Amino acid sequence: MATPPESPVEEHAYELEPNRTPKPIPVALEELCRQTKFSKQEIRVMYRGFKTECPEGVVHEDSFKDIYAKFFPHGNSALYAHYVFKAFDVNCSGAISFRELLVTLSTLLRGSVYERLRWAFRLYDVDGDGAITRQELAEVVVAVHELLGRRAPPGSPAARLDDAKANEQVDRVFRKLDLNQDGVITIEEFLESCLKDDVITRSLQMFDTVL
Asked: Rounded to whole angstroms, how far apart are CA atoms 137 and 159?
């Protein structure tokens, strides 16, 4: 069976010497330690689990959505999982490698507030153009509400009330993040607003619980 890509255990560089059998030199594990805030042992444990669940060596979006559905069985997690998948898929390849997964988890679990906010910006910047529009922010808010099972059946009076509350939340957060009021939020505005405003930070904490 072929070795899964980016394996921290089985990926080797081979050093060729005259009259000797090629000697494997494990380098990927060291690289992953440098790129993340995880220890070698933590990486080995996570890789074993990853290889068991993803024998192909990558996670595709459908599998990623299935994972989210198990953690949030009372809501519709598909839309939010789609946005998170795109944020994890740094190379935009349509699949998440172990390296991409590990680097992102390191940022979310052990990164600084600044690093986490930069990743959060990537999540909200749905089209990846370097700016967040009100529509993009609204899409993520709706996705979170669906994920948590907070949206009533479409067309019902309760659903209209939910939509009104969601729009109010989006308007409030967007006005505070869009510092120059030009209709888009840049990464600089996002970081400045979040780092200095506890109200915005608390408003965004609802997303931290489902990352």
From this structure: 19
| Whole-number Å distance between alpha carbons of 186 and 188 | 5
Three-state DSSP at 185 gives strand
Residues 131-146: tens digit of each pLDDT? 999 999 999 988 988 8
- Beta-bridge partners for 131: 186
Q: Which two tokens stand for residue 62?
A: 């459908």
Contact 77, 68 (CB under 8 A): yes
Q: What is the DSSP letter of 130?
A: S
Q: CB count, 10 Å around CB of 189? A: 19
φ, ψ of residue 115 to 5 degrees: the values are: -65, -40
145-179: per-residue pLDDT in tens?
A: 888 886 666 667 776 777 788 899 899 999 999 99
Q: At what angle do helices 157-177 and 134-147 cross, to 10 degrees?
A: 130
Q: 169 Cβ partners below 8 Å, 6+ apart? A: 141, 203
Helix ranges, 72-156 (H): 78-88, 98-110, 113-124, 134-147
For residue 69, give every residue at least 6 positions away whose Cβ sits within 8 Å of its Cβ, in sequence order, or none.
77, 78, 81
- Asked if residues 210 and 108 have their Cβ atoms less than 8 Å apart, the reply is no
The DSSP H or E segment spanning 60 is strand 58-60
* CA–CA distances in Å: residue 142 to residues 76, 83, 118, 127: 11, 12, 21, 16
What are the DSSP calls for 190-202, one per residue?
A: HHHHHHH-HHHHH
* Contact present, 102 and 113 (Cβ < 8 Å): no
